[in-house]
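Thanks for the sequence, V.! I ran Activator of Hsp90 ATPase AHSA1-like N-terminal domain-containing protein right away. Repeating your input here for the record:
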Amino acid sequence: MAKWGEGDPRWIVEERPDATNVNNWHWTEKNAGPWSKDRLKELLINLKIAQNGIDCNITEVEKLDGEASANNRKGKLIFFYEWDIKLKWEGLLAGSADKIKGEIHIPNLSEENDVSEVDMTVTIKSSGDEAQRVKAFMHSIGKDIIRNQLTEYIRSLKEEFSKGLILPKKGETQIKPDNVSTITSGFNKKVNMEPIVSSPKQVGCKLDTKNIEITETFQCRAQEFYDALTRIEMVTAFTQGHVKLEAEKGGKFTLFGGNISGEFRELVPGKKIVQYWRYKQWPKEHFSEVTFSIEEKDDNTLVTLKQDLVPASEPSCDFALQCLDNSRNNLEKDFCKLSSRRNVQVICD
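Predicted structure:
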């Protein structure tokens, strides 16, 4: 039996400023739905996304369905939120007067997913090269900026909206919500009381992407390397297979039995090649952008390859990198054969 004046604090009524919810023991819930809708619209509408001559902005939150709540149990703050969001956006390329319009769908912003795992689908209403370039920009840069805004929404939900949920005890005027936890909204799902560690995730055709850069030195002239990727007989030599290739701006190419296809975007003889690359297993109409920067030195040629918008979940398909890395010996061997016939001096390893 407890001594007089002692006992389970759950049943001891303290002198409190409001005389309710002793020790914050009872479950209290605060509807965060209307506040969340206002906050998400504030963070997303008119959001500017601009870089490298591409200027985009979110024009409208077309759809915002879901719910959110903040809860207090035993002095812990627990948050539930689940949103299905559809945004409208516009983009403009520098020097162009034609606006590109599209949508972004975010179907699963919830406490069950880290922001880095939230799915985003970018679509466009236009067609053509400019539209595809702006879409690719929104796929990479745009999605990252939108994720930052979603992170800010979650922070403000936990730190700003939740004020007043934990009531002060006797002698206290304010409780800081240091004990913040998040659990899932399902009854039979795992409870998570630890900080969330994000990890890359790919679902369906909603792409997370990565960029790759690699530098290699080749014992050949800069023009020889350029020719190796733009002349059909040389490309055939190092791929050892049937090749379709039109080395001009807008020209198409197909390599390795159709596994790789794409389009030439920029050609500067002996200096630069920019292509759209597509691996046939990638989601429909998704292309990466590959840039070969070629710099001739005194005794070799330095090649820097940059490949942007590679699907993060398919490391085995980083084909531009594999081409540069794994085909190096074949390229240099074939340079020598072709160069000897053309009477160009090339030093081989």
